[in-house]
Amino acid sequence: xxxxxxxxxxxxxxxxxxxxIRFSTLEQREAALAKAGYNPFLLRAEDVLIDLLTDSGTxxxxxxxxxxxxxxxxxxxxxxxxxRFEHAVQDVTGFKHVIPAHQGRAAEHILFATIANPGQVIxxxxxxxxxxxxxxxxxxxxRDLPCVQSQDPKLNxxxxxxxxxxxxxxxxxxxxAARIPAVMMTVTNNACGGQPVSMANVRAASALARAHGxxxxxxxxxxxxxxxxxxxxxxxxxxxxxxxxxxQMFSLADGCTMSAKKDGMSNIGGFLALNDDQLxxxxxxxxxxxxxxxxxxxxxxxxxEAVAQGLYEALDEGYLRYRIRSIEYLGEKLLAxxxxxxxxxxxxxxxxxxxxxxxxxxxxxxxxxxxxxxLYLVGGVRGVEIGSxxxxxxxxxxxxxxxxxxxxxxxPRRVYxxxxxxxxxxxxxxxxxxxxxxxxxxIVEEAPVLRHFTGTTRPAGSASAPxxxxxxxxxxxxxxxxxxxxxxxxxxxxxxSLRRQFPPSRRKTVIARSKRYGSGREKRVTITQSSWxxxxx
Length: 537
Prior knowledge:
It is built from 17 helices and 17 strands. It is an alpha/beta fold. It has a five-stranded mixed sheet, with helices on both faces. Helix 4 crosses helix 10 (277-290). The model is unreliable at 469-537 (pLDDT under 50).
C-alpha cells in the first residue's frame, strides 16, 4: 500500500461532551442588542449563537487536563499542583521565577505597578487594551511601534506583527534609557490583526534593549501560535519543533507576562515569569497583597494543573496545524467573496477591515462597532471591535481615530467545527450584502478607561432617550461648540466627543469652548475629512 497523504486537515480530537446553543429570531436579537446598549459585550451569552468575542478562556479542555484537575492539590501553601505548574512554565520559558496570577491582566498589574512610574515610556510592537490601561494607570506612556507593513491590511507580508526597531532606537535616544523601565513584545500582535513576530525581529529588539540596559519582556499570550508561524514562514526553522522555537524566543527575553487563557489552553489563569531576583521579590510582595500566596496566586489547584498540561498541548504540531488552518479557511472564503480582511490571516482570529467594507460610515461613527452589531443582528454572531472605540480615547480625554477599524472574530480553541465556520461565512456575506443599511453609532455612556467593555451606544440617527446625557465618569463633560462662521451649518462637539461626519473634501475650522480649559478660553480644532485626521492646536 502507498502512503496516504490527505488534503483535508481534520480536528485532532474527538468530541465526547456537547453544549447546546440557542437559536433566536431577528426580532429577539434586535431586542437583546437594544437592551445591551448596542454593546455586544453586554449581551447575555445565551443570546449568542456563535461567540467569537474572544479566544481568552473560552476553549475546550482536554481529557488529560480534566484528569489533572481531579487529582489537584488545593493546599493553601506549597501545593504539589503549583510545583507541577512551575516546572511546566520553567521548562517551556526557561525563566527562573514563576509568579502565578488569576489571569494575564493580573500579571500585568503586578509588573507595571512595580516598575512603571509617571513620565516613563514603555514601547511595544503594539500594546493591547489591558496592557495599555495598566501602564497608563501608573502615569506612564504606552508607546506603540508597529512595523510599517502592519498599517496596510491588504499587504500579504509574513510578519506584520514585527516591531519597528528603528523607531525603538529613536525612542530610546529621545526618551533616554533611564525613563524606559521595559520594552514589551507582544506575540502574536493582537492589536495589529493577530500577526506573528519573526525570530529575527525578537532578536533585534532584544539586542537593542539589552544594549541600553532595558529589560525586554514578552507578552506571551499566544506564544505557541507565534512559534508555528516562525516554523512555517521564517527560513531556517522548518525542521524545528514548536517547543524548541518557543524556548529560543523566550531565551531572548528577561521575562514574560502570560494569560494562560489563550495558549495555556485553560479557562482561567496566568503568570509573570522573570529572571531578575530583586524584581521578582518585589513582584511577589505585591502578589501576596493582591492575588494570594505565591504558590497559588489567585488560582485554584485544579487551574494550576490545567495550565501545566495545556502549555504542552498548545505546542502540539497537529493541534497547531489544525488551528491555523481553521483561521485560513474562513479567510479564504471571505477573500473569494471580496470581503476585506487583514492579510495574511493570523493565528487566533480573522480581522475584517470594517473601514474598507463600510466607507459610508465615518471613523468617528465607528464602522467596526456597526459591523459587529450587524453580524449579531443577522446571524447571532458576536465578535469584537478593535478600532476607535477600543483605542480612540486618550489618557487626557481627547479622541483619536485609530489606525485601523477592525472586527476581530476570535476562535475559541477546540470548540467550533467546520460547519460552524461555513455558517459564519454565510452570515458575513449576508451582512456585506446589506451593508448600506448599517448605521454609524454614537457613544452615550462610557467609563474613563477601557470604555468598550461597559459603554453604551446608539445608532447615530436615532432620537435621544429622555434626559439622555453622555457620561464620562469623573471626566468633565464637554460643552457644545460654537459655529466658526455664518457659512458653517454644522454644530460640533469638543474633540473628546466629536462624532459628526463632514461632507467630502471639506475642511472646517471651529472654535471650541471646554470646561477643562476654563471659562472663556478657546482652542482651535481643524478637521480634514479626506484623511480623517483630527488636529487640536
